[in-house]
Amino acid sequence: MPGLPTRFAAFYGARPLHLLTMLSGFALVGYVLATFRPATLWNSGTWWQSIVVWLAAAVIAHDLLLFPLYALADRLLSWRIARSVQPKVVARNYIRVPALGAGLTLLIFLPGIIQQGATTYQAATGQTQQPFLGRWLLLASVMFAVSALCYAARLAGARRRAAGKLRKSRIRR
Questions:
Q1: pLDDT of 60-84, one tens digit each?
Q2: TM segments (predicted)?
């Protein structure tokens, strides 16, 4: 006789944690809708700074433009890696992770990189936003370099294991 979690999963279609997560998400959305008013989401003075406009632009930019582009890039990367000679260690995640990190840090620091609000930033800190681009480029290059070193170490380990197996098979003959 199946246990309660198994029967729940058969009835609901997923584990209980999924239901708990969904209920928590709906509770959060309900709270946001109850506390935010339309005036909070719309800036009548400068329309392009409204939360609604940015949310709509993010959905359109991501779902209609960016997602197909990076899905295509991932397909091309997968196709290229599948044709490579060394299928022992797949390089896909060693490219994906630093690219994702570089993209997210660009998204977070973009206002500083494009020097948006430069006068306010300088008045508040006494510094300029000039080094933001160089620092982001340095951070992105370090992420790719660390990923390349990890990939090289993993590839060397795989080659060493393959050479060890080849020697053992020759010795047994």
A1: 888 888 889 988 988 887 777 666 6
A2: 17-39, 51-73, 94-114, 134-157
Q: What is the pLDDT of residue 141?
A: 98
Is the pTM value of this prediction over 0.70? no
CB-CB contact of 101 with 136 (8 Å): no
Q: Produce one character per residue of 34-49: b if its CB has 16 or more CB atoms within 10 Å, e if not.
A: eeeeeeeeeeeeeeee
- Domain ranges in the chain? 1-35, 44-83, 85-173
